[in-house]
Write a structure and sequence with these properties.
homodimer, alpha+beta, Thiol Ester Dehydrase, Chain A, five-stranded antiparallel β-sheet, about 25% helix, disordered N terminus
Chain lengths: ~150, ~150
């Protein structure tokens, strides 16, 4: 499947293009399950402690929020690109707490495409997740290596 | 549990302190399961396609690698701190592919502690994961909000 030509080589992408990446609903069980495995701090995994704490209830792990963005980005963009690999995330900001029941919607805007002499391109994109009230919960800038046309 | 005093308020942390965070083994099934859910690109989930591709085999999602770091950081440091929440990851670099069977070891060095007028501190730390051959696979700089002594 990796070798099947897809529509988008790096040369086919356009600077300034905005991808609407769809939405993901954050269930309480999913929030707690993710955090138990990867980020077991009380405000992510213990509803009672979280209710008495700073946020007044459970909040999602930032890594979980980032994983939700990645899932939406693969489904809405990368699956149609000739991706080699992700290389870097610049300035991942967890801007607001994400809570059980939140519905997060992703977007991504291509900022730059730089093709190298080895037929690869570094694609830079500004990424964001907003919640159901259009409040930004996550922003980052991603760098992805993408094949250029052979 | 959130309200139980722990040893380390922000004032108790020391700039320059290096945390040895322990190790995590990356199983092939775990690698594929994580990626199927959060980063379903062929080089993360399809062993046959990955073998024929750029890396000659499956590689872990960068988000999975970051989640492994977070788990080690919670177990080896944050669980003993008065953490309010993570705020930012600066410059997350996926420096080398992580493959099934790799054993990753984490470290974290406190770079800065800035207490604000609300009794909170922004703690900045340089973080890294190395593999079993001591090659760096992940680096980032994290910002975490931590309570100062009341």
């Amino acid at each position: 499947m990796n070798e099947t030509p897809r529509p988008a080589y790096a040369d086919d992408l356009r600077i300034g293009h905005v991808y609407r990446l769809g939405s993901h609903s954050v269930g309480e069980d999913d929030l707690v399950d993710f955090a138990r495995q990867w980020d077991p701090q009380s405000f992510h995994v213990d509803a009672e402690a979280a209710a008495a704490g700073t946020f007044g209830g459970l909040i999602a792990s930032g890594i979980h929020t980032l994983a939700i963005f990645q899932r939406l980005a693969v489904q809405g963009a990368f699956a149609d690109w000739q991706v080699i690999a992700g290389r870097r995330l610049l300035d991942v900001e967890f801007r607001r707490p994400v809570r059980p029941g939140d519905v997060l919607t992703g977007s991504m805007t291509i900022d730059d495409i730089v093709v190298d002499e080895r037929g690869r391109a570094l694609v830079t994109a500004a990424a964001a997740l907003v919640d159901q009230d259009d409040r930004t919960v996550l922003t980052t800038v991603i760098e992805v290596l993408v094949r250029a046309h052979p």
